[in-house]
Design brief:
The chain is mainly alpha-helical. It is about 70% helix and about 5% strand. Strands 1-2 form a two-stranded antiparallel ribbon. Strand 1 and strand 2 form a beta hairpin. The longest helix is centred in the first third of the chain and has 29 residues. The protein starts with a helix and ends in a 12-residue tail after the last helix.
Length: about 290
């Protein structure tokens, strides 16, 4: 198989970014049971935050990343308190319509404020690359992969090693028992939704120096995100990681080995979504979900 080394490296780097993109989405569903259609806009706002931090303050995206994540968490917690909290016991269709509406509002606010013109963030490493043998590796993608890995590992450590993380897992496994144990459900849900938004904003920061920034970039990423969590299994964070790499390898394989595949690779998410819903609706590592 020609170019296998290049294919493998590109797919791995893409999988790391997809993992960070989807893990916040999976976290909010796995614990709060909210399908957040506004998650793509958290990614979009994170990318614009990176752009304006560099343009106005001269901050490198990696330096601005912690600040943007904190801002994303605060905004996420505010959105939860103002709106999401009120529909926790409502039918799923109400929750979907609410988060979809929030996403549309944020997208149109960005469109009005910053126009539809595409922008880009170009720190010194944006166009650098290195050669290992005959494999060309983008420095920006390596940095994005490394940061994404650190954040994902940090999330797993938070879930397993901290009091708040264990409380979140208890809520995901048995909400009623968690309440009887004295866990403050409203507070925990707000924190989890805030972390989910912060991870989405972090994804936007990493994407800001890899691709173009526009008010519509969130929806594009959201479609891939849903394909990944359905592939991996709704509510399974580990399944989301697996699904992210499956989609990354499938897209990259199509781009490399299917004639004219570069144009087809963006449709791979839809094809996988279609197949998994027919063959295994619960995904690879998913759990049963009540109606």
């Amino acid at each position: 198989m020609d170019f296998f080394g290049q294919f493998f490296v590109d797919a791995m780097l893409l999988g790391g970014i997809y993992t960070l993109m989807v893990i916040g989405l999976s976290l909010s569903f796995g614990i709060i049971r909210i399908i957040n259609f506004a998650h793509g806009e958290a990614i979009m706002l994170g990318a614009y935050g990176s752009y304006w931090a560099l343009t106005i303050l001269g901050l490198d995206p990696l330096v601005a990343l912690p600040l943007i994540m904190v801002a994303g968490m605060i905004v996420g917690m505010a959105i939860y308190k103002i709106s999401i909290k009120r529909v926790l016991t409502a039918p799923h269709i109400n929750q979907i319509l609410l988060t979809f509406g929030i996403g549309l509002i944020l997208q149109n606010l960005a469109l009005i404020s910053w126009s539809a013109d595409e922008r880009s963030v170009n720190p010194p490493y944006a166009f650098d690359s290195m050669m290992i043998g005959d494999i060309s590796i983008s420095t920006a993608r390596v940095i994005a992969f490394a940061v994404a890995t650190i954040l994902v590992v940090g999330l797993f450590l938070w879930l397993r090693r901290t009091e708040l993380g264990r409380a979140s897992r208890a809520l995901a496994e048995n909400g009623d028992a968690a309440i009887l144990m004295g866990i403050n459900v409203t507070q925990m849900y707000g924190i989890v939704f805030g972390i989910s938004a912060a991870l989405g904003a972090a994804t936007g920061v990493l994407l800001s120096f890899i691709g173009a920034i526009s008010p519509f970039m969130g929806f594009h990423m959201l479609v891939k995100g849903f394909a990944i969590i359905i592939l991996g299994g709704l509510g399974s964070i580990v399944g989301s990681v697996v699904g992210a790499f499956v989609l990354a390898f499938a897209e990259t394989w199509v781009a490399y080995y299917v004639p004219g595949g570069a144009g087809w690779s963006e449709g791979v998410a839809f094809a996988l979504l279609f197949l998994i819903l027919i063959i295994r609706p619960r995904g690879l590592l998913g759990q049963a979900v009540e109606e």
